[in-house]
Write a structure and sequence with these properties.
Layout: H1 9-18, H2 30-54, H3 66-89, H4 91-105, H5 112-136, H6 140-152, H7 161-181, H8 185-212
Helix pairs in contact: 2-5, 3-4, 3-7, 3-8, 4-7, 5-6, 5-7, 5-8, 6-7, 7-8
Length: about 210
């Protein structure tokens, strides 16, 4: 099991709007999730473009090379393996992650997982790594600051702190990969693959559990 790197605040907010009296984060409908993913991606892209325009930020290089693809796959593999280990060894993280998996992944069909990988992978990396890193100085401190912001924005409450900590760590890995390679394609591919594989593994595991019962 792994970590899905999707901006969750809008999804949680939509749940509160559609069912404000409910204290439980029950699964949204498939249509709601797809709409919120699209809206979130558009908002992040707008923020990135406005930030780039106002502060004259130079976007990090985007070069689709074989080394960048391999690098992105390698980073994704490391994140997925590490997250799987933590998921099985840390009950607090497992409980926190399962809330999001049940909320977001369960209502989606298999083809929707492509959008779950592409939309956050492209929009979040453009903002947090492509624009934010150069704006903050394109150094280790910039990676740390952007990672903390990235992690905090993946929170929906104090009880979800294990997920926030892990999202911050993953944000650091993605940011550092962008810093050392100077190529935004590396974290984009890593982000997309992480989301796609994570959601697929969760669906497969739940399907196997249902058939075994």
């Amino acid at each position: 099991m792994s970590c899905i790197l999707l901006s969750h605040p809008l999804i949680v907010s939509l749940k509160l709007v559609t069912n404000p009296k409910s204290s439980d984060m029950e699964p949204l409908t498939r249509e709601q999730i797809l709409v919120v993913m699209g809206v979130t991606a558009v908002i992040l892209l707008i923020i990135a473009k406005v930030w780039q325009k106002i502060w004259s930020v130079t976007l990090m290089d985007v070069q689709l090379t074989s080394n960048a693809i391999l690098g992105g796959l390698g980073v994704a593999g490391g994140i997925i393996v590490a997250s799987s280990i933590i998921y099985h060894l840390c009950p607090a993280y497992r409980q926190s992650a399962d809330i999001y998996f049940k909320l977001i992944i369960r209502p989606l069909i298999w083809s929707d997982l492509i959008w779950l990988g592409l939309l956050p992978g492209l929009s979040e990396e453009l903002l947090f790594r492509g624009i934010m890193l150069p704006a903050l100085g394109l150094n280790l401190l910039a990676v740390i600051l952007s990672s903390v912001i990235f992690g905090v924005l993946h929170s929906s409450g104090a009880q979800q702190w294990p997920y926030v900590v892990w999202a911050t760590i993953v944000g650091f890995v993605l940011g550092y990969s962008a810093l050392v390679t100077g190529n935004l394609v590396v974290p984009i591919i890593a982000h997309i693959i992480t989301n796609l594989v994570s959601s697929s593994l969760w669906k497969i595991s739940k399907s196997m559990e249902m058939h075994s019962n």
